[in-house]
Amino acid sequence: MNTLEILFYALSAFAIVSAVMVLVSKNPIHSVLWLILVFFAISGHYILLNAQFLAIVNIIVYAGAIMVLFLFVIMLMNVKSDKEPQKKLLTKFIGVLSGGSLLVLLISLVKQTVQLQGKQVMMKEGTIGLIHPLGKALFSDYVIPFEISSVLFLSAMVGAVIIGKK
Amino acid sequence: MKLIIGLIVLFPLVGFLFNGLGRNIWNKKVIAFMATGFIAISFVFSILAFLNVQSSGAAMVHFFDFINTDTIKIPFDFKVDGLSSLFLLVITGVGTLIHLYSTAYMKEEEAPHYARYFAYLNLFIFSMLLLVLGDNYVIMFIGWEGVGLCSYLLIGYWFTNATYNYAAKKAFIMNRIGDLGFLLAIFWLIVKLGTVSYGSVLTAESLAKLSSTDITAITLLLFVGAMGKSAQIPLYTWLPDAMAGPTPVSALIHAATMVTAGIYMITRSNILFSASEFTGHVVAIVGISTALLAATIALKQNDIKKVLAYSTVSQLGYMFLGLGVGAYSGAVFHVITHAFFKALLFLGAGSVIHAMHHEQDIRKMGGLKSKLPITHITFLIGCIAIAGVPPFSGFFSKDEILAAAFAKSPIYWVLGVIGAAMTAFYMFRLYATTFLGQFRGTHEQEHHLHESPVAMTLPLILLAVASAIAGAIGIPELMGGHHWLAHQLMPIIGEAKEATLTHQTEWALMAASVSIAIIALLIALNKYKRQADDEPQTSLGKFLYHKWHIDELYDNIIVQPLNRFAGFLKNVVEKNVIDGAVNGTGRLVQYSARKLRLIQNGQVGYYILFIVLGIIVLFLCWFNDVAILRFLSFLTNKS
Amino acid sequence: MPIQYYIFFCLTLFSIGMVGVLTRRNAIIVFMCIELMLNAVNLLLVAFSKMYHGAALQLAPGTTAGIDAQIFVFFIMVVAAAEVSVGLAIIVMMYRNTHSVDINFLNRLKN
Asked: Which residues of chain A make contact with C18, given a CB cutoff of 8 A?
């Protein structure tokens, strides 16, 4: 097993464990922290795939901004871990079961798909993840969605402000 | 011809509508006039039709296509030949007389009910005309049902009386049982031959297509229909009870016309019946047994109409005996003569009842000879005719049947003569008790005795004349006559059978039966001249008086179990099973609705869960069983 | 690495997120699990983009085939950010009205 594979497995394991801890934690703040760890693992995966831009953006936007926002809101709510209501055991069981069966179903579907057999993912190399090609493509082919996304942000901001007003 | 036939049939129908729809409008004179008038017009046209047939032969009149499919065609056709034109005359002729009679007999009724009576009578004539004129079994069946219906309506005419309603129901239901047989025969014919028209069924080719079991079955089923309609054993008990209706109704329907429908049907289908020995025997045996049974019961009855009713059943038995032994023209002859004298007798009885203010027990009558002269004479003529005394008509027709019976088997003849003797006896018992001797009723009744009005006596006189001379149409060659009736019916019933009896035998038979009848007649006259019957003393007498307890028998073995079964169905099946199912469905729907409603609990978590489940199901269905199978391979091929 | 490994991994993360959505009652945690799911999808898209890129480079060196998926991921992040801001605003409002962030409380859609 070469480094690549070890790194892949390690990062995957790390991500999965953290995700499970997100679910399992009683304290919401702990959940947020575990989620940040998940994002770090995902960014690690991005770097493995040489999608450097996205790795950095993931950290900055997701882990940096969005999670911080979550933390703010949690602290604002003053959500205590002991007061948080828990769902019934049956519901949890059913939830896990249905999620699990969805997972099993989808995995089996993927396994049987002929077209996906043996396709390799190019790791470590490849120029498309770099900033230069990405930026070029973004500002040439995808400039319209880019501009529109700014409008989207504007509307989200306005919406958030209006909703948040008393 | 089409016009004539159409009018013959149409006028009674118009009369029905006229009186039925306008029963609250017209007054009694108009109702009576129009009703009788319509039938009289039909009679005139019937004469025209008859003469037409005499000159030009049989005709078929097509009106419209009644049922027209690929597999079967049933056109609405009328067949006018010797047989049907003859019946036309009898039906419309006797019908007119009875309508005329009814105008006076029913005079006490209120106008709407008066109109209702005549409407039903007209409808009856219409149905009967359909029956005899139809060119296929289905049209006949339509008429068949129609007369059954009108019989019900008219028996239960005085519907406020529960017993009468019961009698009407009984008549209709027994008719219906017979009709089932008729229907099955029609179905069988359709299955085997694909047609029900007389022209197609009653031919030698069609006969060849049917196996002997087919023919026997069809004829037996047809006979079952005739049994119900013409009151043979076992479906005869409705006829005596049908006397609950007004007397003219009894005269028309239960003496002259409806009950002869069975004989008409069998005569029409004579090819089929001749082809089946077995059915012939069955018909003859049933006929003669009915004749004897009814005659024995009539010996002991004390209601004037009941005696006549049983007499009708008995005479019908004779007609069927005639049919069974192959004497079709004899049977038809007896139908015609019986129509005359039985209608006469019934109308006479009606006249007596009218005079006695609705008293029907003959033990309370007597000595009416002087008070009701015309009724007396005509009634006497009727009695002589029915007893079979020459030269009145009954003699010729009955004798023709008896001769044919003897040719088939002497036993039939012996039984027939016994029956004839009983007929003579009970008829003259009736006559003597009613008209001779001292009046045995109350003083009140005696005071009110008077002869009936002209509207009632005129039909009596005409019918008496007919009963006397109708024999002329069937004088056998034996006596030098040219049997006109047999020749008339020849196209339908084929050549008269070879006379297997020598002339001497025939004379001897005739002499024997006539003398026995006259002896019985005289004995009855002698016995009942002075006094009426007391209560039956002997057990045999009681048995006969109670009509052989057959009604009670039927009640026990058929009616009670059916009632119990119906009660069972009503209480157990209806309540628990059917209502249970219906209510249960309602309850089930409510229950499931209650449970389903809980899904809509507003909890987002539930909704998302169902979304996920839905996705899983979708995937499963999308990729069919392959995905499910792959589950297992997933466990095995984890790479 | 064969693409299937990436697919399995992402499916796992996705279903964990799904389970979280179904199981947790705290609205904020539910929201976070949604973010988790989005991230899983992002990773998968990038993996596919590299798969295509690898295959295309064999045929024509110097292409930028497969870059579309990464652009897509970029936009997904954009939308996720906008969505989070609005969603949290809503949650804050809900808290103000009901003083609880229990999603079971939101059963106004009942019946």
From this structure: 99, 102
